[in-house]
Design goal:
The chain is an all-alpha fold. It has one domain. The protein is built from 20 helices and four strands. A hairpin with a 2-residue loop joins strand 2 and strand 3.
Length: 449
Amino acid sequence: MKEESAVELPQPLSSGPSAFIPAEVILDEGTGQEVMTEDLLSVSHADHLVSIMRLHPAYLSCFLRTQNALLQADGPLPLSWRHYIIIMASARHQCSYLVKLHTSAFLLAGGDESWLRGLHCASPKIQRLQTLNKLLAHRPWLITQEHIQELVCPGAEPRWSLAELIQAVVLMSHAHSLASFIWGCGIHPEPGSPAEQQHPPASPVGNLSQSSSPLPEKTANQQEWTDAVNEVQLLMERMMMVQQHDEEFSLEEMVTRFERERTESLLETAEVLQSAVPDSISRFVQEPDFIYQDFSPRGEQSPPTMRAQDYSWEDHGFSLMNRLYAEMAQLLDEKFQVVCGLTYHTMAMHTHVDTSTLRKALWNYIHCIYGIRYDDYDYGEVNQLLERSLKVFVKTVACHPEKTTLRMYSSFWRQFRHSEKVHVNLILMEARQQAALLYALRAITRYMT
């Protein structure tokens, strides 16, 4: 166990962009270089991040356009402030990869070097974002119109305008969800940066997606290999059953199934030894003990569920953001649509597969963890399609990304390709960001009305 790391280190770290994915897999499957234009990559020159996302070029293209608009385009916040907000947001999840990357970008954008001594040295206006930052990162359902009012109402000094605040909210939610992706894929720091964010080495394990890389070979453990193949077959059969199922349930039964899934999700947490956070991260964090807490704590009054029918991205969030930050609303909407529709019609060794039910189960499970319910979705499908090891991985990466380990990554979908596991992390990242944005935008809507 490396002293400053929260993950297991069974042997020396491997080289390459990822601790979980062999470099040769990334090279073999990493097509789509045509999307990496010089203008887009100049945003942050995040080579390792891009090399992993390149496994899914359609997504990478819209991700880079969004990040370029967020960090480079005209907007109410100075460029240096945008990078600093990413730093303080990334620090909530101990993501030294992003902290280091945006520290350099902050200085290149003319940022005040003294701010890097810690959050207490930053502008008082930036410091006032801390409460919203911690809530967005860990418990977004607690965000209320009062939190918005404290920042934007006349008399709140230094005051945030709504235009500035909406950009800050997108920056923070972007950093939180991107930290989940980085931890979930085991992405190494860039060459030359101190390796404070350490991961276990890559392992010989294989998207809901591509078919270009070979599947894992049979190992000495013949039974384990056979079991993994059988798991894929069982999942295929369950997907077909879900797709053919046409029984309708009452709203009461649908709510019951949601509550059952939400209660069961309380158990899907792996305990991992936490160790000291390095000063280069902790200096940007206030209240480090404020972390994710289950949306429905056992034995406590649960917070009210957000019904998607009452406040959804399509009908409410997009409309509000389109008024306040039009370009970003369009880009985020494209990104959500691309990741939800992303498919190569393959699954492990199978081709011509409709994976829509599996992708939807992943998305809705993540929203369930964050207390968002779809009245027209049967949450019984989540239990049918998502094995426990996958649920543990998803919940850890979505809620406690800094606790992600190689063992968690390797234990689910043992016969699937690495690109398919990256696909899971893309869905996870976008579902998490949308959930956080929905709570923040709902609070802004209530403040404005």
